[in-house]
UniProtKB/TrEMBL annotation, chain A:
HAMAP family: DNA_primase_sml_arc
Source species of the chain: Halapricum hydrolyticum
InterPro entries, per the entry: DNA_primase_S, DNA_primase_ssu_euk/arc, DNA_primase_ssu_PriS
Listed SUPFAM superfamilies: Prim-pol domain (SSF56747)
One example GO MF annotation: DNA-directed RNA polymerase activity
Protein name: DNA primase small subunit PriS
NCBIfam families listed in its UniProt record: primase_sml, PRK00419.1-1
GO cellular component: DNA-directed RNA polymerase complex; primosome complex
GO BP term (any one): DNA replication, synthesis of primer
Family matches, as Pfam families: DNA_primase_S (PF01896)
Organism placement in taxonomy: Archaea, Methanobacteriati, Methanobacteriota, Stenosarchaea group, Halobacteria
Necessary cofactors: Mg(2+); Mn(2+)
Family, as annotated: Belongs to the eukaryotic-type primase small subunit family.
Subunit structure: Heterodimer of a small subunit (PriS) and a large subunit (PriL).
Automatic annotation (TrEMBL), chain B:
SUPFAM superfamilies: PriB N-terminal domain-like
Pfam families: DNA_primase_lrg, DNA_primase_lrg_N
GO terms, molecular function: 4 iron, 4 sulfur cluster binding; DNA-directed RNA polymerase activity; metal ion binding
Role: Regulatory subunit of DNA primase, an RNA polymerase that catalyzes the synthesis of short RNA molecules used as primers for DNA polymerase during DNA replication. Stabilizes and modulates the activity of the small subunit, increasing the rate of DNA synthesis, and conferring RNA synthesis capability. The DNA polymerase activity may enable DNA primase to also catalyze primer extension after primer synthesis. May also play a role in DNA repair.
Annotated protein name in UniProt: DNA primase large subunit PriL
Transmembrane segments: none
Self-association and partners: Heterodimer of a small subunit (PriS) and a large subunit (PriL).
Length: 392, 359
């Protein structure tokens, strides 16, 4: 990025911050703050270990410094500006989740467009929120568009603030379905007689009430009902797609499903050995289909720095936006995260890396060279390193 | 001082009772009070059989032996001792409150000298985070525990079925059977006992305990808990582990605790994850990926905790202790059995399974 481009972006970020109305996170003065300035050095150096005392008010600081990126810590400390974590005196930490398009299995980098990546990310966000709200019952959730390739969720419920890394890892594993095991998911109950290890007198049930077990049960019932509704040969063909299920086993499993549908509905999956194999495979499908592929280190790190909602992302020129829970469906990051400041006028840019872009409800196709474009597009291209500022 | 305090000396009320009696620990150790001997016994028992031994008949001695034991553990200051000791205090307390709660009727509980579930949960600030599924707290057989406290106590502990992912977490609560709730309380005791250790011990207390400390160090050295075995001879495995391995290789379904036991044993004797997978491979149902995951977890690679092989007592309580032989009578831990068997075997006749695989 050339100096004139950097100076332009820094100036316009400043204009944005002078008009912006930022709501800082709760307990802002107990948190560590950090930022990356607009410097020419190739490596990005973060200025960190700052407290609100060092910065003054957030709004004044942003208007004065006009940083490229701004972050605050998930953690709260006795002394947030101490230069080492040991000296800071950790008190508590929000639980933070990061969904990044780069880490999604459903995204093919280089092939999917930015809009497609963000759409996949929103699907993953819905899965994550289902875990956080339904399973964990969290009530204080802040959903944020990161300004880049994904979404953040900040959880501030009292009950999770003190959790250590190890406990947070259990939460990560939960939403990602890691370590989920069929045998551990089902409850085994000895039915009559002695509970000898190899005795067949075991009844294996999936609890229908919630958690992964409830999800697995739901998926099993959906599959069973679909199989029973289709004709015999199609159902058997479908069942033999599972490893270790031949025609014989498939027929047996299907018969067992038909005769024991009520048992299945109640969670008893031990209706036939062949069916247990099918159920096992269906549990794997549920994990694959329902898990939320969050970026693990962000959640387990109790000292993590995260982008400040309301600030601008220096790599896109888009705003880091808090999203009201009931407006999530309607939220379109490529429209709603375009800062007002950059709307309504055109600027001249020199495009170095042409292509096609959807932004603010428009689709733009442009080649290398000098163009006059809407400012939000120009800022986006310059921040991404695809254009330099041109002469007006 | 009440008998209740002596049974649960880690409780706040017990500590207050000691403080109220204005007992000076320095005086207790200087005059060689019976509490010193009993305190040593607490720690030695922890190393030998994972309990805190037989209680002294006098409430005062039994109660005072607890601070003495903590002081001894602090002076020796070996992580393995501190951990074993905290686990043993927790195991003994767990055994006591499990019995006591099973026999406590509501009438008795008003006498003030039986522990109630309410008091136990309140002691560890769990009362407001645990909800009986139906009916009064003391009579329920299923409980819902808030996820935060559940993770504080269960994260990184025990086997797969304790992992949050395998629990039907619903609206922020984890359902638990009564016995599972008491296992969480056991862990709370362990954390309580371990917190603050090692204590800073003044010379006036440390010096008179020189003999006891020397004896503990000797016991520790004999047990050689830190020794690496790194020799794999299935023929010399303790009968319990041989039986579990046989079942795996025959392709039988093992319950979690059994699978955990054999895998942690194999890890402890120096087998790598790859080698364990290879040894299990005869059983197609075992699942290579699961074995890898579990082995790495036990080893502490995918979790911060390194798990150790269950003791004979634990194996017995899960029904995994089978085909006991003469050597079993002399040891209290499957690892001790295997070490003993290796020591006695003629070195030339011992072939490591891994070497025989290479040829």
């Amino acid at each position: 990025m050339e100096e004139r481009t950097r100076a332009y972006l820094r100036g316009r970020f400043g204009d944005h911050y002078r008009r912006a109305d930022l709501t800082p996170p709760p307990d802002a003065s107990e948190r560590e703050w950090g930022y990356i300035p607009w410097t020419s050095s190739p490596g990005t150096t973060m200025v960190r270990h700052r407290s609100l005392l060092d910065l003054g008010s957030i709004e004044d600081f942003l208007a004065r410094e006009r940083p490229r990126h701004v972050y605050f810590s998930a953690g709260r400390y006795d002394d947030p500006s101490a230069s080492s974590m040991g000296q800071k005196g950790w008190r508590s930490s929000d639980l933070v989740f990061d969904l990044d398009a780069d880490h999604l299995p459903s995204v093919t980098p280089g092939e999917d467009t930015y809009a497609e990546m963000l759409a996949s990310c929103k699907d993953a966000l819905r899965k994550l929120l289902d875990f956080l709200e339904t399973d964990f019952g969290f009530e204080q959730l802040t959903v944020v568009f990161s300004g880049g390739r994904g979404y953040h969720v900040h959880v501030r419920d009292e009950g999770i603030q003190h959790l250590d890394r190890e406990s947070r890892r259990e939460i990560v594993d939960y939403v990602r379905g890691i370590g989920l095991e069929f045998d551990a998911l089902v409850e085994e109950e000895a039915v009559g007689g002695t509970a000898g290890r190899s005795s067949p007198a075991h009844k294996r049930t999936l609890t229908t009430e919630g958690g992964w077990s409830g999800r697995a049960h739901g998926h099993i019932m959906d599959t069973v009902e679909a199989l029973l509704a289709s004709d015999e040969s199609a159902a058997i063909e479908r069942l033999t797609e599972y490893d270790g299920i031949g025609d014989g086993k498939a027929a047996a499993a299907l018969r067992a499903m038909r005769e024991n549908t009520d048992q299945l509905r109640a969670g008893n999956i031990d209706i036939h050995p062949a069916f247990v194999s099918v159920a096992n495979a269906l549990v794997e499908e549920v994990v694959e289909g329902d898990n939320a592929p969050i970026d693990e280190p962000v959640t387990t790190d109790t000292n993590r720095l995260i982008r400040l909602p309301g600030s601008l992302h220096g790599g896109s020129g888009l705003a880091v936006r808090r999203i009201d829970r009931d407006e999530l469906d309607a939220f379109d990051p490529l429209v709603d995260a375009v800062p007002e400041t950059f709307v309504g006028h055109d600027i001249t840019v020199e495009v170095t890396d042409g292509g096609q872009i959807e932004l603010y409800g428009d689709s733009f196709t442009f080649a290398e060279g000098v163009h006059s474009v809407p400012e939000y597009l120009g800022v986006f291209l310059m921040a991404r390193g695809r254009a330099e500022k041109g002469q007006e | 001082m009440k008998p209740l305090h002596a049974r649960y000396p880690f409780m706040r009320a017990a500590r207050e009772a000691v403080e109220a009696a204005e007992i000076d620990l320095a005086t207790v150790v200087q005059r060689g009070d019976p509490a010193v001997e009993r305190g040593l016994d607490r720690v030695e028992s922890a190393l030998e059989d994972g309990t805190v031994g037989e209680p002294h008949r006098q409430t005062r001695v039994e109660l005072l032996s607890y601070p003495v034991a903590r002081v001894l553990v602090s002076i020796v200051d070996e992580a393995v001792l501190t951990r074993s000791y905290a686990r043993a205090e927790a195991a003994s307390a767990h055994e006591r409150f499990t019995d006591e709660l099973a026999s406590t009727t509501q009438l008795q509980s008003t006498s003030g000298d039986s522990l109630t579930l309410r008091e136990l949960l309140a002691e560890f600030e769990l009362l407001e985070h645990v909800r009986p599924e139906a009916g009064p707290l003391e009579e329920a057989d299923r409980y819902w525990v808030e996820v935060g406290p559940y993770l504080d106590l269960a994260a990184g502990q025990w086997g797969e079925e304790w992992r949050l992912v395998n629990r039907p977490l619903t609206d922020g609560e984890v359902p638990l059977e009564e016995s599972e709730l008491l296992v969480l309380c056991r862990r709370a005791v362990e954390q309580r006992v371990e917190s603050g250790l090692p204590l800073t011990v003044p010379d006036a207390i440390a010096e008179p305990l020189g003999d006891e400390v020397a004896q503990l160090r000797e016991t520790l050295a004999e047990l050689d808990l830190t020794r690496d075995i790194d020799t794999v001879v299935p023929d010399l495995f303790p009968p319990c582990m041989r039986a579990l391995l046989d079942q795996i290789q025959k392709g039988e379904h093992l319950e979690h605790h059994s699978r955990f036991a054999i895998t942690s044993f194999l890890t402890s004797i120096g087998m790598s994850t790859d080698e364990i997978v290879e040894l299990y491979e005869i059983n197609p149902g075992f699942g290579e990926e699961m074995t890898r995951y579990q082995t790495d977890h036990i080893r502490g690679e995918t979790s911060p905790t390194e798990y150790s092989t269950p003791s004979c007592a634990t194996m017995q309580s899960y029904g995994d202790c089978v085909n006991m032989d003469d050597r079993c009578e002399r040891i209290s831990h499957p690892m001790a059995y295997y070490e003993d068997a290796l020591d006695e075997a003629d070195e030339d006749e011992v072939t490591d399974w891994r070497e025989s695989q290479e040829s």
